[in-house]
Design brief:
Shape: extended
Radius of gyration: 23 Å
Helix content: over 70%
Largest sheet: none
Length: 147
């Protein structure tokens, strides 16, 4: 049932917030440290385990997918708002750190995009290459392009 997916998400959220609060206490920070991230990690790990063991019915998976599709953008927006407020209050050092992080990411995009390519250039595997692969099983394409 879909409600089980919602219950799974809620349980992961409660556990994540609890662990985040404990981490905040251990680190002497008066805040939740990574609770939402821990909750999402728990959700991914638990659903993957349930799916691999065949104990995650399709309606439950749909419930998890529905709420996580709504949940993740909201959390990202909330975190982004907090980061902007902290950066404004932090002054020039926070702005410089953010600008430096953006510049490093921009420089690394071409480097990361080359990882995994066979020839290291602009080539790589194309969709046309995959479609031109020899077919197996003795099937031949008909006039409609279907095997």
């Amino acid at each position: 049932m879909v409600i089980y997916g919602v219950a799974l998400l809620a349980g992961c959220m409660i556990a994540g917030v609890f662990v985040g609060d404990i981490l905040g206490e251990i680190l002497h920070v008066q805040a939740n440290v990574g609770g939402v991230g821990i909750a999402m990690l728990l959700l991914v790990l638990i659903t993957d385990r349930l799916r691999n063991t065949g104990r995650l019915p399709k309606p439950t998976a749909q419930g998890v997918a529905f709420w996580s599709a709504i949940y993740i953008p909201i959390v990202v927006a909330m975190a982004a708002k907090q980061n902007v407020i902290a950066a404004i209050r932090g002054g020039p050092a926070a702005f410089a750190a953010g600008a430096l992080a953006v510049l490093v990411c921009l420089v690394l995009v071409p480097v990361i995009s080359r990882i995994g390519r066979e020839d290291g250039g602009a080539g790589g595997t194309r969709v046309a290459d995959i479609g031109d692969a020899p077919e197996t099983g003795g099937h031949q394409r008909g006039a409609g392009g279907h095997p």
